[in-house]
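Encode chain A's predicted structure.
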Amino acid sequence: MQKLQIPDSEAVRKTIRREIVRSEESRYAHRLHGLLLLTAGLSCREVAKLLGEDSTTVQRWVRRFEHGGLEALREGKRSGRPRQLNEAQWHKLEGDLRMDPREFGLPTKLWSGRVLSEHLRLHYAVDLGLRQSQRIFRRIGSGRRNAQP
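Encoded structure for chain A:
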């Protein structure tokens, strides 16, 4: 029987890796596949090479499984980066965005990511870049904000 080959296998491998990291469930399934290969007799190093992981990562999966079973292979809580604005500041900022930026000494009548970034720096002592400021608009539910509600 002739060996099957996938054209451009490196690109396919990268695409599959991106799919694996995209969701919690696919990462869980990836870990399960790793354990399945271990139970078939492959070493951690061999499994790591096949799955594109570091061997210490595979060893960590085994320890998690030994201590907590299959459930321990699921994703844990990820804290992420802490917010730079507390809850009170966040609510105040939502009110600010309903007002004309000129009332805060800013040189324009429309809110934008750049204007919000400057407002945060001047009035909240928070230094956020353009992209983070745009994310604040998305979180509030708007792209660019007019001065009028």
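The longest helix spans residues 24-39.
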